[in-house]
Amino acid sequence: MRVGFVLALALAFVAAPPAGSDIDPLVRGVLTGEWHFSNDELADLERGKVVKHSLEAPAAGEMAVVGAIRVNAPKQRFLDLARDITRFKRSEDVVAIGRFSDPPTLQDLASLTIDKDDFDPSSCRLHDCDVRLPARVIERVRHEPDPIADFKHVIFENVVAYEKGETQGRLLEYDDGDKPIRPVDEFEGLLRDTPALGALVPELPDHFRKYPFDPIAADDDFLYWSKEKFGIAPFITVTHVTTVCPSARTCVMATRDVYSSRYIDASLSITVATDTGGPPEGFYLVFANRSRASALKGGFAGLRRALAGRRARGSLEENLKRAKARIESGLAPR
Fold this sequence. Notes:
By secondary structure, the protein is an alpha+beta fold. The protein has one domain: START domain (Alpha-D-Glucose-1,6-Bisphosphate, Chain A, domain 4), CATH 3.30.530. The chain contains eleven helices and eight strands. It has helices at 2-15, 25-32, 39-46, 75-83, 85-88, 135-141, 147-164, 183-192, 195-200, 204-209, 301-329, and strands at 51-54, 62-71, 94-99, 220-228, 235-244, 250-260, 266-275, 283-292. Strands 1-2-8-7-6-5-4-3 form an eight-stranded antiparallel beta sheet, sandwiched between helices. The protein is globular and about 65 Å long.
């Protein structure tokens, strides 16, 4: 009995935040628990340094990173900028971006241009196609009079079906490679590997898992598309964004990948904006991403994951600093 008491006391001491910490206890618990930040790292964060590291990735082809930075601006400014996603996310690597209407319309994709770098229907065959598509689309698309327009319509039908919670029209399997990929199953795996999401907002995992049949009291809930530079060829992606503020002090913006034309099997991101104790007025911006990619499986997978992880950590620090500068200036790129 004495041993149990001593152990409980020791654990309480280890978990206790340092005196004077100005991080929301809920967020701090996730930072030190699910995201494995040390007290020294959080002290660096409170002093204004960027902190970042990789997270354990139990599944083959999975990679996860988390980082944080202190922003000297009101949290509401970030929320307002993030709501205007087409301005806030635009950068040199984001070629085009647009927010879907509610309900979505094909016109929402009018500014999405697709050329042969994005999709070459003439070389698209079952198990050998340069974009992620199911067999039913691959077998018909090259015979379409306008395969590019058909590809754009496939993306739109996937969004409509996702919004309605229907399977018809959804891209539930990718048959562009040797082995089929089921993105919904891969995303379910990411949810299991990301307990931080439920720790921050208990309703969020089922909101994504059962969407649209398990609605949540969200501050914002929308889909957007983007065309982004990455690797040897750009990719087109559709993303679902849900923002929830579990308290006046802290807001959580979670995103899931609804479709990616290349590279990504599934992706889940969490952004936390939590007020500092102030003054001066400010907040901590925390970003975590967990993704799965078939390119990180197979031979030399460990080396590829290590190289990808190093690049992801470097990109994360750069993006956090860029976001901090934009928020503090009050401007998003035009």
